[in-house]
Amino acid sequence: xxxxxxxxxxxxxxxxxxxxxxxxxxVTIADCDDALNDSFDLCxxxxxxxxxxxxxxxxxxxxxxxxxxxxxxxxxxxxxxxATRFLWxxxxxxxxxxxEKIELQSRVESLLLMRKTSLEFPRIMLQSAPIxxxxxxxxxxxxxxxxxxxxxxxxxxxxxxxxxxxxxxPEKNEKFPLSNLDYLDGQALADLEMPCQKKDGKAIYISFxxxxxxxxxxIITYIVNLASDVTEKxxxxxxxxxxNQAVEQAGEVIVITDPxxxxxxxxxxxxxxxxxxxxxxxxxxxxxxxxxxQSDEFYQDLWRAITSGKIWKGRIVNRRKDGSCYTEEMxxxxxxxxxxxxxxFIAVKRDITENLRSLEERISLQEQLQQSQKLExxxxxxxxxAHDFNNMLSIILGYGEVILKELRPGDPLxxxxxxxxxxxxxxxxxxxxxxxxxxxxxxxxxxxxxxxVIKNLERMLSRLIREDIGLKLVLAxxxxxxxxxxxxxxxxxxxxVVNARDAMPDGGKLLIETAAVLFxxxxxxxxxxxTPGKYLMLTVTDTGCGxxxxxxxxIFEPFFTTKESGKGTGLGLSMVHGIVKQxxxxxxxxxxxxxxxxxxxxxxxxxxxxxxKVDDIEEDADMGGGEQILVVEDEDAxxxxxxxxxxxxxxxxxxxxxxxxxxxxxxxxxxxxxxxITDIVMPNMNGKDLAERLKKNCPNLKILYMSGYAxxxxxxxxxxxxxxxxxxxxxxxxxxxxxxxxxxRTKLRKSDE
Length: 753
Known about the structure:
Elements: E1 3-7, H1 11-21, E2 26-29, E3 42-46, H2 47-63, E4 71-75, H3 80-90, E5 93-96, H4 101-128, E6 132-137, E7 142-145, H5 147-153, H6 157-160, H7 165-168, E8 189-197, E9 203-214, E10 220-229, H8 231-249, E11 253-257, E12 263-266, H9 268-274, H10 278-281, H11 296-307, E13 312-319, E14 325-336, E15 342-351, H12 353-406, H13 412-438, E16 446-448, H14 450-464, E17 469-475, E18 481-484, H15 486-502, E19 508-519, H16 521-525, E20 533-542, H17 549-552, H18 572-582, E21 586-592, E22 596-606, E23 628-632, H19 636-648, E24 652-656, H20 659-668, E25 675-679, H21 687-697, E26 702-707, E27 715-716, E28 719-720, E29 726-728, H22 733-752
Parallel strand pairs: 1-2, 1-3, 3-4, 4-5, 17-19, 23-24, 23-25, 25-26, 26-29
Antiparallel strand pairs: 6-7, 6-10, 8-9, 9-10, 11-12, 11-15, 13-14, 14-15, 16-18, 18-22, 19-20, 20-22, 21-22, 27-28
Helix pairs in contact: 2-3, 12-13, 12-19, 13-18, 14-15, 15-18, 20-21
């Protein structure tokens, strides 16, 4: 029941009001002014009381703060003017006497309803507030806990009220001193975000605000706390921060412009790639990067695409701040608002300059590999053909020379036989070139001073070229030495010079250079067939007509030539290629039509110095003295030829068509030859295996191997091993004779020692 305080100086009016109101309310008639300090819901007073007490009433109403404490003034018409100056400071309603009972009841009920509403308003607000509100006392215990707190933290009010807040919010944060009332004295906390945990253990993020509540003496009695669940907000902020970090730290260039193309944002990758700082480009357009490599139509098509709402993807060449150009792949996308309007453009760009360079290098290496494999296949074919021809040419040359020795000077057949021998020699030269290309000729390498080899050839090279071609040598000093067959290296130089001469029919300049070069892992990887290490480089450069790419792909193929019919075999450069490869080197060529051609030969450098030659062979060609020689050759005609040649030189010769026959002669028939001449490649048993078997019975047996090509058991990649006697097919009568005599002399000297 509502409490009404009556403070009227006119006692009769006070009595009448008390009797009228007592039936529905608790009525107190004030006996002194201090009654204002008691609890009441409505104060009814008259003019004299108002005049005397208005300041006290005003203070009491202020102490009620947010609670509505109504005052009803009872006055006569004559007192209204007097009360006006105090009226709106303390009075909420007035009633003029004489008082109508119904009117009084209406005014009282209206004011009490307003009072009740004001008292319940905080509770209503607390219950319906969308944010959590809880009250802590000085002992840090929860005194109130609204439904929003239940929803946010998962704890019901009956589980929380009366308990310490630390038990409910175990997360500690020094920035949020819930129990430090002194800290809150005179100030408040606002929007302090911190992690918390719900009743079910789920992690959440809460934004706290707190303020102290004071009593009439100004002492803090409670702390009111506001709590908002900002978990989703924090997630959104984290996502935004992550996105910002990703954009800032992305390796790709990211540019954001407005709809007119004015730059609004660039990430650090843009600064790294272009050389421009962010401050230099903001407010500019991407036109500042134009290189001039694209046409105006290119940019018009690009702009037309993105302004129509399409995504543009493509490759573009731009220019850095330092003036250098770079290629980048770019995707430009429109950024649209919720209404579908384009509000920005975002460009994601990646510098692919190095990728393109690497791709070009890979393509170049692949082409080099394919060319190398192609030449290798052709070389195997050429080597096989040359091998078969060598056996036949040995027979043609050998019998031709034998017949010439038997014919008298002036014999009419002599000229015809000489033509046969000459043709055989030219054919032998062709097969040697084929073997050189296929890397199947036998080489006898020596440590060479490359500069000295070229100097020794200078006079000959001057005769090879014409007077309208200027020859210049630029030989670097102290470049070291190479291990190679001197005759073959001379052949390489001469063939390259002849090729350069023929490329300059109207004259020009020919430059021969040498240098020491070092290929590290990186440089070796960009050149096919080159391993890291030290090399000597021989360069032959002409100012001739140059070659197209199509011709460059074929120049090392045998029989390929750009010369007129009859002016070249097409084997010169193929032979150069084969010699260089067999010597462990690499040859490269660069040419431009109308500019000229440069050949670069790289040969591995060796640390040892060249040795001076000592000729142990006497110049006279002594005849044999009946020494036993065993000839093993599966080609019948060639076997008979060698037998005839050696018998005419005074040697005793036995022959065998294969290894089995040779073993029979030695092991069963007791033959003790001093020298065995054997083909290397034979059916069932090769020449090297045969030699090892025979040396068991003839430990002092000398061996002379013969073969049509070098890819066999007594050579290492075509290099004749030290101490091996070898003769290359086809050979002449003089070749075989001198070789045998040289071996027999060496054997004789060793026996004398």
